[in-house]
Design brief:
749 residues; mainly alpha; two-stranded antiparallel sheet; 30 helices; 69% helix
């Protein structure tokens, strides 16, 4: 507990960028509307608006990051650093308050910065990659809104605003994956992604509802905030107030949403199929936006999961189990892919498994650190794959059929690919080494030894399948479309991409190389800058320190046998509000790091040897082995059919749901709707007959006939007057004038 918390809080600096971080999602949202309305009439068909909006968001994000770092320094090493919260109430009803606003802390700042930076590079890359596309303007509109949705989710102060950003991403992913919807593969992939993610979204809505109705009374009474407030939910979850079953069920529901969004087992099947969309979409979706959203949700609401799943308790939990399974099954599937983007897609699924595993095992900071490093090298890998497709393989992504030997013709693409691949493998001193090794080390340190072994197995498999992909793409001799173009000597022969593609690759590769040093634990505490800036400080705070409300509970220390200290960071905390649990980091040991590195190098060496023998020397002992050996044939077919999960979903789940729905809809249409329509038609005919007989025949026709008879009678009566004699007409006129004069006299008198 900090003495003089009020004085410390007052001394913390904010700044314009921190106070106005809500502009980061707002600017691209406005840009989306501008592109949609007038984009086609602009010189660059709207792409310039998207790029400018991303640059503006990046500038604000950089400013916010700088000011947040200054804020952490002004608070001291142990001080509670409150987020910069700005809220506006937009609806109040029956004691329920609905707000919109921002909550900027270290987690929000780092994710905002990554999203804005990569979105900017992807926008620039797309100018060349999508040049000449018939839906060029609409692509940039959807891409800009997609980034806006992720940014809105990151800055959200309450769960409703988070849900809005979450759903915007889901809608835009459907549009972007199905960009070339004329192709059946693309449209099916878009629909699959949309509906699979919707399954998880149900969990998010259920989880939000459960938490709101459970926590709202407590948060309003003690903190003065709605039960939708993310900070209020965090305090409630750690207060000891929640019913254990309620918070467990809420955590399960929320984690189902995270599984769907981040492509974790068993809802991972949509993610590789999403590669049907344009490569820039794949890069953005797989590196820093949609798939990261699920991990971000768990990190943001970590107190709920920490309490609900008893993280750091005995045994494993739902998060660690799902994360561990996902690491292995996704890595195994990457081995049998010939499409380079699918290899990277399954790699993304596996790396997201590492993040989930870290969060489930109490390694919060290493998991968030891996979000940071993974974004750069995975974005670079996807854009490098797009560069190969764009400039070498005639828009093909088949490594075995249309690539090979491309390192000689695409040196920049090759170099950036190699750097990012080594980072993904976790080779020292690239970024992936620091973040992935920290996850594995902390998982073991926190007592999850089985899952630490799974992490090491995943590292071996990652090195092996990425070595295979690298060899097939850049080594050996050109094949298929690449070889044909070289032989013909055409302008479409493999060549390096232009600067709009290579510059983003170089920048991302540089960050893949150096970003790990922001939290390089092997070199001591002074290198752990990201932990200082991002990790929540688990202090018990009073009203004066938090700015929330009155002192509300007495945190009770948990069992010392399962937890070394209370979840609030002290063994005997005073009364106050706790917003984050205390988490301990494993001390770095070079012995463990070298073991992990040796496993990675073994995976690389074995895969290189097999790739040379299989794809270059054509060793008869290896070629066709998966078909000759019965055991390997079964295993290969099991993998190539993706564990038959797609067949299970389509033939069992989808049909079991859609079949009865279709039959029910048909019966309802035939027996209810058609009956109603037939009754309406029959009643209409009866009414029409009555109207015809009584209104049309008697009223309308009678009026017409009577008016005709009256006209005929009046004509007959006036016929004698129409004699043609002038004297008769003059008499009539004189008589009329006389009558008129008489009337005037009478009126005036």
């Amino acid at each position: 507990m900090i003495d003089g918390g009020a004085e410390i809080l007052q001394s913390l600096s904010t700044g314009w960028f921190l106070d106005h971080a809500w502009l980061v999602p707002l600017i691209p949202a406005i840009a989306f509307a501008v592109i949609l309305l007038i984009g086609k009439r602009l010189p660059m068909k709207g792409s310039e608006v998207g790029i400018i909006s991303m640059v503006a968001s990046l500038v604000i994000s950089l400013g916010a990051a700088y000011q947040w770092i200054q804020r952490t320094h002004s608070g001291g090493e142990e001080a509670f650093i409150a987020p910069v919260v700005r809220t506006w109430s937009w609806w109040q009803s029956a004691g329920h308050t609905f707000t919109i606003g921002q909550s900027i802390d270290g987690l929000a700042v780092i994710v905002l910065l990554v999203v804005a930076f990569i979105s900017t590079l992807v926008q620039i890359y797309s100018v060349e990659y999508l040049r000449g596309d018939r839906r060029y303007t609409h692509f940039f509109a959807a891409l800009t809104l997609f980034s806006a949705g992720m940014m809105a989710m990151v800055v959200a102060e309450d769960m409703l605003f988070l849900l809005l950003g979450w759903e915007i991403m889901g809608l835009c992913s459907f549009i972007l994956i199905g960009h070339w919807w004329e192709d059946d593969v693309n449209s099916r992939a878009a629909l699959k992604a949309f509906f699979t993610v919707r399954i998880g979204d149900v969990g998010l809505v259920v989880g939000i509802s459960m938490i709101y109705f459970s926590a709202n009374e407590w948060t309003m009474k003690n903190l003065g905030v709605s039960g939708f407030s993310i900070r209020g939910i965090s305090a409630w979850a750690l207060s000891g107030e929640p019913n254990s079953k309620v918070i467990l069920l809420a955590a399960v529901a929320l984690f189902i949403a995270a599984i769907g969004k981040s492509g974790q087992f068993p809802l991972h099947t949509w993610l590789p199929d999403a590669m049907a969309g344009p490569t820039p979409v794949s890069s953005l979706l797989h590196s820093s936006t949609m798939v990261v959203a699920g991990v971000f949700l768990v990190a943001r609401l970590y107190p709920v999961f920490f309490t609900g799943f008893d993280i750091l308790g005995t045994g494993g939990n739902f998060i660690t189990v799902i994360g561990g399974i996902t690491i292995v099954i996704a890595a195994a599937l990457a081995f049998v892919q010939d499409d380079i983007k699918r290899v990277l897609a399954y790699s993304t699924v596996s790396q997201l498994g590492y993040m989930m595993l870290g969060l489930g095992a109490g390694a919060w900071m290493p998991a968030v650190f891996h979000i940071f490093t993974h974004a750069f090298f995975k974005a670079c890998l996807f854009l490098a794959a797009g560069s190969v497709s764009h400039s070498a393989s005639h828009h093909s992504f088949d490594m075995k059929r249309d690539m090979g030997g491309l390192r000689k013709y695409m040196p920049i693409t090759f170099a950036t690919w190699v750097v990012s691949t080594l980072a993904l493998m976790g080779v020292f001193p690239l970024s992936g080494f620091f973040s992935k090794d920290e996850i594995i080390d902390n998982v073991g340190h926190n007592g999850y030894n089985t899952f630490m072994i799974i992490g090491l197995i995943g590292a071996f498999m990652t090195a092996a399948y990425m070595t295979r992909a690298t060899y097939l793409t850049f080594f050996g001799t050109p094949r298929g479309a690449s070889a044909h173009a070289l032989h013909e000597g055409s302008a479409h022969a493999p060549h390096e991409s232009n600067w709009l593609i290579t510059v983003p690759l170089i920048l991302l590769a540089a960050l893949a190389l150096g970003s790990g040093f922001l939290n390089a634990t092997p070199f001591g505490e002074k290198w752990e800058r990201l932990s200082e800036w991002v990790e929540p400080r688990p202090e018990v705070t009073t009203r004066s320190e938090s700015g929330f409300g009155a002192v509300i509970f007495d945190s009770t220390p948990v069992n010392e046998e399962t937890h070394p200290a209370s979840v609030c960071g002290t063994s005997a905390p005073e009364q106050g509000v706790c917003f984050a649990p205390e988490l301990h980091h494993a001390p770095f040991k070079w012995s463990k790091a070298l073991m992990s590195l040796a496993i990675v190098l073994a995976g690389f060496a074995l895969s290189w040897f097999v790739s040379v023998a299989l794809y270059t020397r054509k060793d008869r002992r290896l070629v066709g082995l998966t078909q000759r050996n019965p055991v390997m044939r079964v295993g290969y077919n099991f993998l190539i059919n993706k564990y038959y999960l797609d067949a299970l979903y389509e033939n069992v789940i989808v049909r079991s749901i859609t079949g009865p729905i279709a039959k029910g809809a048909y019966w309802f249409n035939q027996n209810i709707l058609d009956g109603i329509l037939h009754s309406i038609v029959a009643a209409g005919r009866s009414v029409a007959g009555w109207v015809y007989r009584n209104v049309d025949q008697k009223v309308v026709d009678g009026a017409v006939n009577n008016s005709g008879n009256l006209t005929r009678s009046a004509g007959g009566a006036l016929q004698p007057v129409q004699s043609g004699r002038v004297s008769q007409y003059g008499a009539l006129l004189f008589s009329a004038a006389a009558v008129a004069a008489l009337v005037l006299v009478i009126i005036n008198t």
